[in-house]
UniProtKB/TrEMBL annotation:
Belongs to the NADH dehydrogenase family. It comes from Oryza meridionalis. This is NADH:ubiquinone reductase (non-electrogenic). GO terms for cellular component: mitochondrial inner membrane; peroxisome. It is found in: Mitochondrion inner membrane; Peroxisome. Residues 384-419 form the EF-hand domain. The keyword Membrane applies. Its EC number is 1.6.5.9. It catalyses: a ubiquinone + NADH + H(+) = a ubiquinol + NAD(+); a quinone + NADH + H(+) = a quinol + NAD(+). Keywords: Calcium, FAD, Flavoprotein, Membrane, Metal-binding, Mitochondrion, Mitochondrion inner membrane, NAD, NADP, Oxidoreductase, Peroxisome, Transit peptide.
Length: 588
């Protein structure tokens, strides 16, 4: 026993001295050198002590990002997000992305349904190790517990109801919107909608059903006129494009297949406003109405639908009162509404009596630190400069003199224009070259470099600026840009915490700069296909184009905007097939 004790101490002393003299000597070499003296026992004890004294270094936990929805906003966010930085989970009741601008083309067979959809799992194929997808529907958002409650339609848990819960660090709400019936009686029961791929497929089948039913020998002429009366309620882009597609389907294909009943077909658009396409330039709206009149499409403007039964549509106008018309199929495209889960969430956070979630300019939901909302389910609340005018004045008044020189204003002008974009828009609308023109126009000062204004004069100069605050439309273009912007913010979140790139903080208790620049929507233009290989376009720079050449521009833009080469080739091949063989009228 004494021998082993002596050998162990000798081995330990040898190992210690060897490490001091030769610090680069490997552990294996020391072990072999000491083994003959019984030092193996001593080394094993020493190694165990050293191992236990070293602190364990675990990799930092990735923040959990949960994305609700796979529409334009959610898909754009996922495509641009660096998923290696986060633990990403996607929850949606549909496992694909649909190119919704082409839904009217699906209703008449111009484009096949599967040509405009791309599986989400395939889109995220390169990120599949970092992204989890759950085909389920979120029915509750619990902001206090940072969790979302979901219900699966394809699988069940042990309780048999398919409910489960997912927690998050950051939540991106991109659930889109649902149809808005304005509580009109009979709409949900008797009208078709055009929000999803399934809606377009139902319309396509019902159109063929109407023609087949009207071809039966026991149907009277009056019944044929009723069955073949197609009514579109809503004169926006979706309703107008569907009417144009329906007219092309009739004159190019169905008249050859159903020659005996072609004279009974009628297409009607009911619009509550004075013109269709009222969000477009007036020249486009007038052109569309004149073209539809030539094509035999009836446009009833100034009518509001008050009731829809199984065979009659009752509408009301100021001049004619109530009018009822028989119909065979009605398509409702008169607006968008709020999903129940969003309404419930708004009640939780105190945003009652609103149509959509209110976010700030950085797309963060008000009163929720880690919840962002993008797409049709949210709207940006642009802060008004007059609400912060005193703070802005104090920030610019660096010498605390109670007045601002032109230099002091110019020093913070860039931050003001970034934080309050309406300032720049107002100056452009009034054809002002710089801030001097704005101040001079308000206070009537002369052309002096040392122009000085007090706070009352400063308020007067900016008093009309907030008139340029405009709401952003609920379009696919806006949703895609919001998704891209938010993904960029997430990608550089850590970097911008140390090196902020946003404007100066002019509200709240914080100081310094915002981490990011606020979201700015850039309008890239909009199209309205009008049938007969004609379209209208409103592009940046007040450029309006109408006619056959614009239709070919529409083809090129919509083909290039497809999310993959697969869908791009499928859509182009569908267009080519339609040119050569016509549309398919099979009821499948």
């Amino acid at each position: 026993m004494g021998f082993f004790f002596f050998a162990s101490r000798a081995a330990a002393r040898f190992l210690g001295e060897a490490r001091i003299i030769h610090p680069g000597v490997s552990t294996a070499a020391l072990l072999v050198a000491a083994a003959s003296g019984g030092g193996l026992v001593a080394y094993a004890d020493s190694a165990g002590e050293n191992a236990s004294s070293e602190p364990s270094q675990e990799a930092p936990r990735k923040k959990k990002v949960v994305v609700l929805g796979t529409g334009w906003a959610g898909t754009s966010f996922l495509k641009d997000l660096d998923c290696s930085k986060y633990e990403v989970k996607v929850i949606s009741p549909r496992n694909y992305f649909a190119f919704t601008p082409l839904l009217p083309s699906v209703t008449c067979g111009t484009v096949e349904a599967r040509s405009i959809v791309e599986p989400i799992r395939k889109m995220l194929d390169k990120k599949r190790k970092d992204v989890a997808f759950y085909e389920a529907e979120c029915f509750k958002i619990d902001a206090s517990k940072k969790a979302v409650h979901c219900r699966s339609a394809v699988g069940t848990n042990f309780d048999g109801n398919g409910d489960f819960m997912v927690d998050y660090d950051y939540l991106v709400v991109a659930l889109g919107a649902t149809v808005n019936t304005f509580n009109t009686p009979g709409v949900m029961e008797n009208c078709y909608f055009l929000k999803e791929v399934e809606d377009a497929q139902k319309i396509r089948r019902n159109v063929i059903d109407c023609f087949e039913k009207a071809s039966l020998p026991n149907i009277s002429e009056e019944e044929k006129r009723k069955i073949l009366h197609f009514v579109i309620i809503g004169g926006g882009p979706t309703g107008v494009e569907f009417a144009a597609e329906m007219h092309d389907f009739l004159v190019e294909d169905l008249v050859k297949l159903y020659p005996a009943i072609q004279d009974f077909v009628k297409i009607t658009i009911i619009q509550s406003g004075e013109h269709i396409l009222n969000m477009f330039d007036q020249r486009i709206a007038t052109f569309a109405e004149m073209k539809f009149q030539r094509d035999g499409i009836e446009v009833n403007t100034g009518f509001r639908v008050v009731k829809v039964s199984d065979d009659l549509i009752t509408m009301k106008s100021k001049s004619l009162g109530e009018v009822s018309v028989p119909y065979g199929m009605a398509v409702w495209s008169a607006g968008i509404g709020t999903r129940p889960v969003i309404m419930d969430f708004m009640q939780q956070i105190g945003q009652t009596n609103r149509r959509v979630l209110a976010t700030n300019e950085w797309l963060r939901v008000h009163e929720c630190d880690n919840i962002y909302a993008i797409g049709d389910c949210a709207s940006i609340t642009q802060r008004k400069i007059m609400d912060d005018i005193s703070t802005v004045f104090k920030m610019a008044d660096k010498d605390n003199s109670g007045t601002l020189t032109l230099k002091e204003i110019n020093d913070v002008l860039e931050d003001i224009c970034i934080r309050y974009p309406q300032v720049e828009l107002y100056m452009k609308s009034m054809h002002m070259l710089d801030i001097r023109d704005l101040i001079k126009d308000a206070i009537g000062d002369s052309h002096k470099e040392s122009m000085v204004v007090n706070i009352e004069e400063f308020k007067k100069a900016l008093s009309h600026v907030d008139s340029q605050v405009k709401s952003i439309p609920a379009t696919a273009q806006v949703a895609a840009q919001q998704g891209h912007y938010l993904a960029e913010c997430f990608n550089k979140m850590d970097q911008c915490k140390e090196h902020p790139e946003g404007p100066l903080r002019m509200t709240g208790t914080g100081s310094g700069r915002h981490n990011f620049r606020p979201f700015r929507y850039k309008h890239l233009g909009q199209f309205a296909p009008l049938g007969g290989e004609q379209a209208a376009a409103e592009l940046p720079g007040d450029w309006v184009s109408m006619g056959h050449s614009t239709q070919w521009l529409w083809y090129s833009v919509y083909a290039s905007k497809q999310v993959s080469w697969r869908t791009r080739m499928l859509v182009v091949s569908d267009w080519t097939r339609r040119f050569i063989f016509g549309r398919d009228s099979s009821r499948i």
